[in-house]
Amino acid sequence: MTSEYTAEDLLPISGIQHFLFCRRQWALIHVENQWQENQLTYEGRVLHEQVDDPFFTESRKNIFISRSVPVASYTLGLTGICDVVEFVQDTNGVFLPQKGSTYQPFPIEYKRGKPKKDPVDEVQLCAQAMCLEEMLSVSVPEGAIYYGQTRHREPVHFTEALQQLVRDLSLEMHGYYKRGYTPKVKPSKACRSCSLKEICLPDVLNKKDTVVSYIKNYLGEL
User: Fold this and answer.
1) Could you read off the pLDDT of 128-157 as tens digits, one per residue?
2) Other CB atoms closer than 10 Å to residue 183's CB: what's the count?
3) In a domain, 1, yes or no
4) Is 120 part of any domain?
5) Confidence band (pLDDT; 50, 70, 90) for 193?
6) Is a pLDDT exceeding 70 seen at residue 206?
7) Dihedral, 101, 84, 143, 113 alpha carbons, nearest 10
8) Are residue 89 and residue 175 in the same domain, yes or no?
9) Of 201, 195, 190, 198, which Cα lies nearest the Cα of 37?
10) From residue 50, how far is each of 25, 53, 141 by CA, in Å?
């Protein structure tokens, strides 16, 4: 597999979820380095703090569990952290010298809410799996997302369609990042729960008047 990106080019895996949810949100965070927390992002951060512990490992019969596993793909140009990777003993897995046997990686991502209609969570998990495949030279066909609201694991199968979506989104993300491009506002219902709505200003910037006209009108009313 030929590397396409260098270490300096790698973008955060977590951003692929933002990108599919809203290109503008992603650009505000990853191109313009803007961030603002709200209750939803706070709850998500607390959940991850409870899960992430790079020094924690656990063994259960034919499974051992690692947390905060760093991953990267120089083909996708992505890097990040897997919340949890369960390594299940399997003859079709990758040989791990420290365990003296072959194991199949099974990535698990933790989310605060519940399953969504769009595959915004699935693309992030799939990207993690594709990184594991590249790093370990082993197929990673499935994983799971644990939702804090339902307290239930949702299985995710990494179909070719889902993997292609990850490839397409990664390529598009790198194009935006290289250009320093922030898309224009496209308001939707999702804007109401977005932590960046006070920075993005979807109601203001979506008006037919330009921002300059808006400011002039505002000053004229004073």
Assistant:
1) 999 999 999 999 999 999 998 899 999 999
2) 14
3) no
4) yes
5) low
6) no
7) 170
8) yes
9) 195
10) 26, 8, 27
Print the domain residue range for 73. 7-183
The verdict on 222 and 195 lying in the same domain is yes
Within a domain: 117: yes
Q: How far apart are CA 113 and CA 149, in angstroms?
A: 5
User: Position 141: which residue type?
Assistant: P
Burial class from Cβ neighbours inside 10 Å (0-12, 13-18, 19+) for residue 1 reads exposed
Torsion of CA 29, 196, 50, 142, to 10 degrees: -60
- Nearest Cα residue to 200 out of 40, 34, 64, 73: 34
* 19 contacts 90 by C-beta, under 8 angstroms: no
Q: How far is CA 207 from CA 125, 135, 183, 189, in A?
A: 36, 47, 15, 16
Is residue 61, in this structure, part of any structural domain at all?
yes
Q: Which amino acid is at 145?
A: I
Nearest to 113 by CA among 78, 148, 153, 84: 148
Tens digits of per-residue pLDDT, 58-97?
A: 677 899 999 999 999 999 999 999 999 999 999 999 998 9
First to last CA, the chain: 63
Separation of alpha carbons 65 and 73, rounded Å = 22
Distance of CA 17 to the CA centre of its chain: 4
